[in-house]
Amino acid sequence: MNKKDESRPPPVCNESGIEIKPVYAAEDVEQSGGFDRIGAPGEFPFTRGIHKDMYRKRPWTMRQYAGFGAPAETNKRFRYLIENGQTGLNVAFDLPTQVGMDSDDPMASGEVGRVGMSVDSLKDFEIAFEGIDLDKITVSLTINGAAPTLIAMYLAMAEKRGYDVAKLRGTAQNDILKEFIGRGTWVFPVEPSIKLVGDTILYCADKAPLYSPVSVCGYHIRESGADPVQEIAYAFCIARTYIDHVLARGMNIDDFASRLSFNFDVYGSLFEQVAKFRAARRLWATLLKEEYGAENPRSMWLRMIAGGGGAGLTIEQPENNIVRGAYYALISALSGTQTMALCCYDEAYTIPSEKAARISLRTMQILIEEMGLCDTVDPLAGSYYVETLTNQMEERIRTAMREVDEQGGIVQGVVKGSVQNAVSKQAFERQKKLESGETRKVGVNCYRIEEEERTVEYHPFEEQVCAEQIDRLRRLRDERDNEAVERALRRVGDDARAAQNVMPGIIEAVKAYATVGELTKCMADVYGRYQEPVCL
Amino acid sequence: MTTQRKKRVLMAKPGLDGHDVGAKVVARALMEAGFDVRYTGLRKSPEEIVGNAKEWQADVIGLSLLSGSHLPFCQRLGELLRQHELTGVVWVVGGVIPEEDVEKLRAMGVDRVFPVGTPLESITDFVRESTK
Lengths: 536, 132
Known about the structure:
The structure holds two protein chains of two kinds. Helices cover 48% and strands 7% of the residues of chain A. By secondary structure, chain A is an alpha/beta fold. In chain A, the strands form four sheets. Chain A has a five-stranded parallel sheet with strand order 4-5-6-7-8. In chain A, strands 9-10-11 form a three-stranded parallel sheet. A two-stranded antiparallel ribbon of chain A has the order 1-2. In chain A, a hairpin with a 5-residue loop joins strand 1 and strand 2. Chain A starts with a helix and ends in a 9-residue tail after the last helix. Chain B is α/β, with parallel strands linked by helices. Chain B has a single domain, classed as 3-Layer(aba) Sandwich (Rossmann fold), CATH 3.40.50.280. Chain B is 43% helix and 19% strand. Chain B has a five-stranded parallel sheet with strand order 2-1-3-4-5, with helices on both faces. In chain B, helix 4 links the parallel strand 4 (90-95) and strand 5. The model of chain B has no long low-confidence stretch (mean pLDDT 95). Chains A and B meet through helix 4 and helix 17 of A and helix 1 of B.
């Protein structure tokens, strides 16, 4: 090695393992795949965004994750967020609801209304959305294991309030495969779980064609330890599983693909994330067009919520999370997201306070109103660095997808637990790098304040809210038409046994005020319950 | 040379919460530090956890709790440990635990609380020391 080499800056790799050069030029773009495939915004392959005018026409939807206690308390928080300029809702459910249990289930003890809103029946949905105009505010339900029941409740509630379900917009997370990898709110075994996702897609395509029944989440896989390339690759493999399932049931790709959406994470290096999203958009469009023969451009759109960034936030010096949140929002805006939600600065400790939620909202509003982020589409396009990285990330995502296929596919990986195992191994490596200082984290392994005073307020948990919720549930069971409930539940069970779509039966059941727990039990009697392959 | 059996750590996730990245990271750190580690998987009741610990003759029980429901769970788990005369088992709790709850957990029998942000080394050191 000569002297000249020694004076060069040390090599830098991004998290996805791509070596970053100190300077980029046109030939780097050429060598990595060229400028040709960038295209124009709103045109295939949509590298620059799915809409021609993007935020000039309408800024991204602002949709903070919110929900706690009983539905009436959550309704107050919803109204507070809307009064402060939020344009969508993103509902957090408590754990019993998420895993399909009623509030009075013995396993639910201590968890009712704790990390989200408690829902037992349609009545709770009526209270939660009271006074909210569902035409103006689109609602996203963060629900997976119990998604068929909760989607049915949302549609039934809207219909009851006089909305035309055929024109109703909204989203459910309903991505069960990622729950087996991270987050863990599974209920049924893998195969029937995929079938249920298929049921919701088929039902919505027919009855609620503007509703997005699935939001495929790379987000939680990334939070569980995956790198940005794997985040997209695993999510696309999962999305393909749902698509293949629905195609096998006789649908045409253009009848439902436009209603699939995605949920991705934004923490990490800014340019790597922006390139990740641009690459993902292009790759998704290409897959849909070339592999699935989609003809409608909307089927090729990668619509997404990009936000969160929980794994990037720290419990140390929590105010730093406000700054991180602002950069994450910037990443998301530069990436051409449709919807944004930010983790709040106190979220590493507790359910966000009103103030913390408002700061997140203001962060997005400042970008829109003051920083010029809505003025022009895909402002980083043409940057030698960003275009090179976009080409390289696309190639790596393709390779990662191929590797999953070669190892037997994502479903096999989930059933055996090998995907979970690989991701959790990476989480451990990530933590070790953090503790050794190899990965720098401000306030954690550098610029620490020892004996730090933390001024975060914990969200108060009201024990009596839980007791009242159980009380209301018991009253409901006394007051409703129990014959109608039993009839409807029998139909759901029969349809499940006959491998029919269970959604029409579930709609009928929730309208008769059947509960989340009753519907889960009725399906579990047919499908069984998931047995986790415990692996380290 | 006598070969001593490795000390056993049962890592458990009580309740309905499915976020187990932390539990698995700590489990791996303890394995690397030379312990025999088993992870229960998700959604375990205090009864199941104590049953597993007893059957496997665990030296240490580690609970990971992020959902805010640590007090009712630990209350019940403490009662069960006493019932089964397992108070000699080292019991540690990690996760999102407010400072004001640490003393309450100690009173229930928890030997040590490791809130979010605890370095892995502090955990492995404590477990090593307390199982000597």
